[in-house]
């Protein structure tokens, strides 16, 4: 399947996501699919447990996996702090080999990150094999035109400005009193392959000490119809497309979609 999947969700960046990425409308939205489709469920790209931890606190039978070992470690710490447990492990989507089969598999905010089309196609096949007959797959994606910052780089002349200069960072204070700063920039955009390459720099000052890291991430972008056909080609039936975090059909004004499909 080529090179190892790339992700910037390691080290200081994993610390940032674990510290500041909590809650959101996706928690109740994806919980509804689990309650309707059934358990057990698998949270693919579970990260630090933004969805997994509240689901376990609610008594749902949910496992989790993520390509980043650092994120999985943060998830385990959050589970322990919440007084619950779950089976979580580090594994890429296209290598998914879970210990059991599921009634529901969901991917919230992770499909296409650090991946390629070939790996994403394999991931969909593995989701299908990991579901019980009739089980439900739920995954969301942002459409390519949702990234308004990237619009100039779809044009040949616009790409002459890449890589971008580093922008002003976002700075936030952590629980231990240190400060985390995060810079992001676009390095490249390939409109033919629909792949954008991002770079992220993270810096910690104070607290337990100072550190700085830089990570690169590719994001493979999908339009509605191509991803729907990829899901069907992986063996799924009853593929439906919804406007993000709703149960209605999308319109041309929606740039965030949720796909559901039955094994």
In short:
The protein has 263 residues and is α/β, with parallel strands linked by helices. Helix content is 25%, strand content 31%. The strands form 2 sheets. The protein has a 7-stranded mixed β-sheet, sandwiched between helices. It has a 4-stranded antiparallel β-sheet with strand order 6-7-8-9, covered by helices on one side.
N-to-C order of helices and strands: HHEHEHEEHEEEEEHEE
Radius of gyration: 18 Å
Q: Give the overall shape.
A: globular
Major beta sheet, strand line-up: 3-2-1-4-5-11-10
**N-to-C span:** 24 Å
Tell me the number of helical segments per DSSP (H or I, 4 or more residues long): 6
Q: Uncertain spans, ≥5 residues at pLDDT below 50?
A: none
**What fraction strand?**
25-35%
The overall average pLDDT, rounded, is 94
Helical amount among residues, as a percent range?
A: 25-40%
- In total, the number of strands is 11
Structural class: alpha/beta
For the sheet with most strands, the description reads:
7 strands, mixed
Index terms:
263 residues; alpha/beta; seven-stranded mixed beta sheet; four-stranded antiparallel beta sheet; 6 helices; 25% helix
How would you characterize this protein structure?
By secondary structure, this protein is of the alpha/beta class. It is about 25% helix and about 30% strand. The protein has six helices and eleven strands. The chain has helices at about 10-20, 25-35, 50-55, 70-80, 115-130, 225-235; strands spanning about 40-45, 60-65, 90, 100-105, 130-140, 170-175, 180-190, 195-205, 210-220, 235-245, 255-260. The strands form two sheets. The protein has a seven-stranded mixed beta sheet, with helices on both faces. It has a four-stranded antiparallel beta sheet with strand order 6-7-8-9, with helices on one face. Helix 1 runs parallel beside helix 4 (about 70-80). It is globular and about 50 Å long.
């Amino acid at each position: 399947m080529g090179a190892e999947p790339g992700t910037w969700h390691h080290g200081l960046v994993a610390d940032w996501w674990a510290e500041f990425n909590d809650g959101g409308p996706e928690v109740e939205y994806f919980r509804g699919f689990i309650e309707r489709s059934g358990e057990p469920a698998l949270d693919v790209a579970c990260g630090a447990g933004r969805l997994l931890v509240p689901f376990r606190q609610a008594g749902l039978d949910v496992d989790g996996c993520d390509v980043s070992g650092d994120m999985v470690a943060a998830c385990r710490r959050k589970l322990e702090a919440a007084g619950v447990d779950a089976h979580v492990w580090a594994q890429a989507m296209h290598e998914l080999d879970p210990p059991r089969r599921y009634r529901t598999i969901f991917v919230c905010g992770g499909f296409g990150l650090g991946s390629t089309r070939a790996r994403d196609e394999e991931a969909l096949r593995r989701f299908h094999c990991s579901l019980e007959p009739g089980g439900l797959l739920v995954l969301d994606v942002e459409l390519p035109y949702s990234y308004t910052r990237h619009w100039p780089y779809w044009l040949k002349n616009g790409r002459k400005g890449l890589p971008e200069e580093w922008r002003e960072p976002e700075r936030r204070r952590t629980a231990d009193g240190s400060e985390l700063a995060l810079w992001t920039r676009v390095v490249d955009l390939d409109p033919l392959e629909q792949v954008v390459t991002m770079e992220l720099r993270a810096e910690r000052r104070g607290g337990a000490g100072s550190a700085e890291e830089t990570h690169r991430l590719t994001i493979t972008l999908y339009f509605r119809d191509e991803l729907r056909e990829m899901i069907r080609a992986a063996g799924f039936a009853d593929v439906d497309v919804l406007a993000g975090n709703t149960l209605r059909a999308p319109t041309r004004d929606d740039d965030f979609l949720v796909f559901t499909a039955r094994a």
